[in-house]
Amino acid sequence: MTARTTRRTAAKSRIAAVGAIAVAGTMLLTACGDQTKSGSNSSTKTSGTAAADLLPREIKAKGVIRVGSDIAYPPVEFKDKSGTTVGIDPDIGAALGKELGVTFQFENGTFDTLITGLRSKRYDLAMSSMTDTKDRQQGIDSETKKKVGEGVDFVDYFTAGVSIYTRKGDDQGIKTWADLCGKKIAVQRGTVSHNLAKAESKKCTGGKKIAIETFDNDLEAQTRLRSGGADAGSSDFPVAAYAVKTSGGGKDFQIVGEQVEAAPYGIAVAKGNDQLAKAVQAALDAIIKNGEYGKIISKWGVEAGAVTEAKLNGGS
């Protein structure tokens, strides 16, 4: 979901090429459903792998890794018409679970509560298009720069930038974040898009601040924009591209300008749970090497965002 926090130097993402791929229709055109069934619970288990040997004993005994996720962020994680959890993250989770010999059980939660859920041990991991940043690693609020928690560790598994989109044929001259001054943007709360909008609004002159309307999930923000209640929306590029392709049969939205804030998505692990982090890192490296990771990335048409190794805390 939208991933993300601290502002880095705006630059065209290296996954700009994903646009032509993602919008070409290689992603599944499915709708979100109720949170009742999950295709992310892989029951195919293996044992004896190096990664599985690293798992904490209590997780091995349970055979389940509970994964907090905001499952309303297609194509990264969402519900299909049957109510099954599908997307890039659930597919990668299933492959990791097979390598580790456990089930990755995705559990729905609002994006801005996932790290709290890790601290309270409601979840073992958080996997939800979450951008790996130093602020999140250190438990720093990206806006106030105050310490608000102990932070988390990340196993980085994908790279994505942030895009702005508008109603189709009605861009109102919006091409860059600076063009949003005096206009209204709809975003998911607690995301990089949200933080970018707040940072840009502070730069606006002549009293023309950006009006920012926030929502629990990105689909609600899209609905607001579609209805004419906002001038623009913003989310991670794969999500924006998917919305452009699928909403209204491709007639509702258009991406404007270029991606910014290219950064890694990370699987979040609570501080102090080093053994689990190392196990997930080893499992990710294993599926990269055996080709399963590449198959998943190709299935969803986002090859240019693929990583070649599992890094720990690679965000900036």
Give the tags.
single chain; 316 residues; alpha/beta; 9-stranded mixed β-sheet; two-stranded antiparallel ribbon; 11 helices; 31% helix; disordered N terminus
Can you offer a commentary on this structure?
The protein has about 325 residues and is of the alpha/beta class. It has eleven helices and eleven strands. The strands form two sheets. Strands 1, 4, 5, 6, 7, 8, 9, 10 and 11 form a nine-stranded mixed β-sheet that branches. Strand 7 (about 185-190), helix 7 and strand 8 form a beta-alpha-beta unit. It starts with 17 loop residues before the first helix and ends with a strand. About 50% of the residues are buried. The model is unreliable at about 1-40 and about 40-45 (pLDDT under 50).
Topology overview:
Elements: H1 18-26, H2 50-53, H3 57-62, E1 64-69, E2 78-79, E3 85-86, H4 88-100, E4 103-108, H5 114-119, E5 125-126, H6 134-138, E6 152-167, E7 184-188, H7 192-203, E8 211-215, H8 218-226, E9 232-236, H9 237-246, E10 253-270, H10 274-290, H11 292-299, E11 311-312
Parallel strand pairs: 1-4, 1-5, 7-8, 7-9
Antiparallel strand pairs: 2-3, 5-10, 6-9, 6-10, 6-11
Helix pairs in contact: 1-9, 4-10, 4-11
* Tally of DSSP helical segments: 11
The sequence of SSEs as H and E is HHHEEEHEHEHEEHEHEHEHHE
Number of strands: 11
Helix content: 25-40%
Low-pLDDT segments: 1-40, 42-47
The end-to-end span amounts to 19 Å
The overall pLDDT average reads 87
Please state the overall shape, judged from the principal axes of the Cα atoms: globular
Biggest sheet character: 9 strands, mixed
Please state roughly what percent of the residues sit in beta strands, choosing from under 5%, 5-15%, 15-25%, 25-35%, 35-45% or over 45%: 15-25%
Q: Roughly how many Å is the radius of gyration?
A: 19 Å
User: What is the structural class?
Assistant: alpha/beta
